[in-house]
């Protein structure tokens, strides 16, 4: 009888709780995908696995999309809003959040980072051959030369991943270079099945496999770790040798984004789970919020998944977003994420618009078709009519009677730059001039246009439109000048790159740093032409793209090299090495300028500076951060233990004395003062550095105080010995609101450097900002 009850009672329990599930949803019930964060320790012992528990107590098996058990404990499921709200009250459910759609933040650059063939980080790390980079993106085109495994050694023994097969992707598409590939579509398919703006995966233009139908993923993967490819170019532009930052690093691809339809949190979180289990060392994720809103960390699956990875020693590099130059436009703000903005390199693709009055207006273009050969064509600006859609050259907005046989001026914005060219071509135009508005300033990126076209900055755009309005018979032609190397100044902060201050916690400076992200040559898919337009039938092995999406994998590759050279360094140590050695000057030895304004840029634009790998390999000192430090930071910003656990997975115990968020051991310092203070106020910060250079070393503080601010450091000298590798110091910042001269961002900037008088200068930006009271 006892045996009967011991086997019957669990079954009875399952029957009772499963009877609460809705077997079908009525038409008036809103059904969505939700992600549920569950306290894994609460699982009743009668369930052999968490999956059994979830499907018995929370949702029907057919409703569950993913079960998470590595970076996150919980599951995602398609349920009604009512059911989700009910589950949020379950004692084992720590958090519930709706699945969100994310967007992609859509060679010569390795040398521009300070990498050289004979000596330095490339040779000391064997080009990263023992490190595995996981790329979360649109998949990969595995046949490209960039992913050859020629002369690569065996796959690292610790690798536990798989080569998931599917449409036009077989097991042999993986090799000793591309060692793993997976795809995640359940969140996307669920969203499509619920109706609304999300379309299902169109298998006539997309592959239900890791194969890349978009091109973005192939580009980012080869930027991070592409092999040397000789005679590389994009239809003649940027000709030379294409290679990634870590050419021998192994690649594992996690396809979480789908052509024309973005990426879903539930799938991204599943990819984090898989990648950490598989054994990656670095994760590269050029993805961010598509709504311009930064969610709290406990409601942000990218932040949560990244914490789970970082807490296990995996470096996570993310893109800062392309919504610059607006203030507070930076995304991916969690302090355990490395947030990467974009800068230019010393290569450009100039093109000139030649006006009928003889003036030359300087722009850029990657057009490679039949040249105009100096022939002058009538010039027209549809925006003269006052119709916005016509000024933007939107679909079906142009009158062929007005534009046929002419070069058409189109304003930038609202639709893809290359799509405007297609609209002009369909209407019979022979060429296009793409004019920046005030919001884009002078920031230009090259595009592989399908008709003769040139992009102009805001000032030149205004000039050409003024010419059209004042000339009786305006004419123009476009002169394409190919590839020019040795551009000065470079780097320049890209106009589009996401800017600070940090919209969630301004005590943490974001972005962390910038890297090459403008006109980057890398491998491309065969599924679409270089514009990505369905009508573009051209095929190219390489393409040139711009965006923080391109900057992020530069840092991912750099992290692979540093991890290979210093396998005992934590993710925070690797970030510190990059930040404290970053460059703040250009190749004219002048302060970096902002492309958007032409003026000097600030740490809100570039963080700690531009990535300089030659120096990052030997930083001297590093600022390390432990998992416990991150937990204390979450306590410091007001999270209760339950919310901390949502992020960290482990039950949290916040210190009795509430810590200060600005005391997180970050390689930058941001001091916030109230505008209501009528007398000088001070704030004191504590930092700890670890010596990773010569065992016996003495470092002296060098302060560049922000204007109107007093900065003191105690002690001013740090002495290290073989027995003493860590030293702490205090930084006191005193500001008087009456004497502060703030810039347009509401801040002033300086720096604190520790130098050993030899080759090490360990530099941290200092930001002093005034905050208005809420």
UniProtKB/TrEMBL annotation:
Annotated Peptidase S8/S53 domain residues: 128-598
Residue ranges constituting the PA domain according to the UniProt record: 377-463
Signal peptide: 1-26
Keyword Membrane (UniProt): no
Annotated InterPro entries: PA_dom_sf, PA_domain, Peptidase_S8/S53_dom, Peptidase_S8/S53_dom_sf, Peptidase_S8_Ser-AS, Peptidase_S8_subtilisin-rel, Peptidases_S8_3, S8pro/Inhibitor_I9
UniProt cross-references to Pfam families, sorted A to Z: fn3_6, Inhibitor_I9, PA, Peptidase_S8
GO biological process annotation, one example: proteolysis
CDD domains given in the database record: PA_subtilisin_like (cd02120), Peptidases_S8_3 (cd04852)
UniProt domain Inhibitor I9: residue ranges: 38-105
Annotated TM spans: none
Similarity comment: family membership: Belongs to the peptidase S8 family.
Protein name listed in UniProt: Subtilisin-like protease SBT1.6
Underlying gene: LOC110418061
